[in-house]
């Protein structure tokens, strides 16, 4: 089978030999523009993609038998068109749990210790000018006894909750929606006023679009922190910027934005927004997590060749 990898740039530093051995030929491109997709997939039986978009027109004009998405999200592939064309589609799942959980909690810790502000103070020479041995210009808050609120209690939410409990935190879990009556789940409106940290791990859907908006932020404690390692659209970015500027909440950290990369500006990139940490969608990117993507993709190819359904088959 002939395969083409259209956008391998984020995996280039990894061992791809096993992936190369899975095919009679594999052509790897770091990046592929929209105009280059058609000629590059023209003779391919298998297409491997991360974020490159494969629409109905491209799929119907191809001879593709298998699409392997090296990510969990499938919104860049027209799944209905793939189904109509008899193209199998596999994704990768749960590969980044340890990496994302670690990143989420590093943000929680950084907010509570004012880590970035202290580092900046040292760089500015404030400690060197101090008349005592230490510098305590910014508040440091312990996690023990605080309450963590989790929105999205899958493997990621559970992983963060487990670490929170190890720090002596209590954990509250948000119910999925109004019909979610499971024990130990709280409606978001009841959960928000109780938490010291709110961490987001739910998918972006019509139901979660702008889930954390001005109204939700106003329900939180002035001392509370918000951490988003899920998707940018779950949080109303302008509302969050306003809330931080006006002291509605104490601080926030996000690894995701609505537009990525944010080439057209973003209210959360305004340097006047206080107590905000922004990381560049890097929570998933540990070397171990990215290598698991490669291994899962090889497994997906083997499952397809064995004519089995496979747990990661989405079409």
TrEMBL record:
**Keywords (A to Z) from UniProt:** NAD, Oxidoreductase
Q: Where is the D-isomer specific 2-hydroxyacid dehydrogenase NAD-binding domain?
A: 105-283
Which residues are in the D-isomer specific 2-hydroxyacid dehydrogenase catalytic domain? Answer: 14-314
What Pfam families is this protein classified in?
Answer: 2-Hacid_dh, 2-Hacid_dh_C
The record's section on InterPro entries has: D-iso_2-hydroxyacid_DH_PdxB (IPR050418), D-isomer_2_OHA_DH_cat_dom (IPR006139), D-isomer_DH_CS (IPR029753), D-isomer_DH_NAD-bd (IPR006140), NAD(P)-bd_dom_sf (IPR036291)
CDD domains xref list: 2-Hacid_dh_4
Q: Does the record's keyword annotation contain Metal-binding?
A: no
| TM stretches of this protein | none
Q: Which family does it belong to?
A: Belongs to the D-isomer specific 2-hydroxyacid dehydrogenase family.
**What NCBIfam families does the record point to?**
PRK06487.1
Question: What is this protein's name?
Answer: 2-hydroxyacid dehydrogenase
């Amino acid at each position: 089978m002939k395969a083409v990898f259209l956008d391998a740039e984020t995996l280039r530093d990894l061992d791809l030999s096993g992936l190369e051995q899975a095919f009679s030929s594999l052509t790897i491109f770091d990046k592929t523009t929209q105009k280059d997709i058609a000629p590059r997939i023209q003779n391919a039986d298998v297409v491997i993609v991360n974020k490159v978009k494969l629409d109905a027109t491209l799929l119907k004009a191809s001879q593709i038998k298998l699409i392997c998405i090296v990510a969990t999200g499938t919104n860049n592939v027209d799944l209905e068109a793939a189904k109509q064309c008899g193209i199998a589609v596999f994704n990768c799942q749960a590969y980044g749990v340890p990496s994302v959980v670690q990143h989420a909690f590093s943000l929680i810790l950084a907010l509570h210790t004012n880590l970035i502000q202290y580092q900046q103070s040292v760089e500015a020479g404030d400690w060197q000018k101090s008349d005592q041995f230490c510098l305590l210009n910014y508040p440091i808050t312990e996690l023990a006894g605080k309450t963590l609120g989790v929105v999205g209690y899958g493997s990621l939410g559970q992983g963060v909750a487990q670490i929170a409990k190890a720090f002596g935190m209590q954990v509250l879990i948000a119910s999925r929606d109004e019909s979610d009556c499971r024990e130990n789940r709280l409606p978001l409106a009841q959960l928000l006023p109780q938490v010291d940290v709110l961490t987001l791990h739910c998918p972006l859907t019509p139901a979660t679009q702008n889930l954390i908006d001005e109204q939700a932020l106003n329900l939180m404690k002035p001392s509370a922190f918000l951490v988003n390692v899920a998707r940018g659209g779950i949080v109303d970015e302008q509302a969050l910027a306003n809330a931080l500027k006006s002291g509605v909440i104490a601080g926030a950290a996000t690894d995701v934005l609505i537009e990525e990369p944010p080439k057209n500006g973003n209210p959360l990139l305004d340097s006047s927004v206080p107590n905000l940490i922004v990381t560049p969608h890097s929570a998933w990117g540990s070397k171990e997590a990215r290598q698991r993507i490669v291994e899962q993709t090889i497994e997906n190819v083997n499952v397809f060749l064995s004519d089995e359904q496979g747990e990661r088959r989405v079409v």
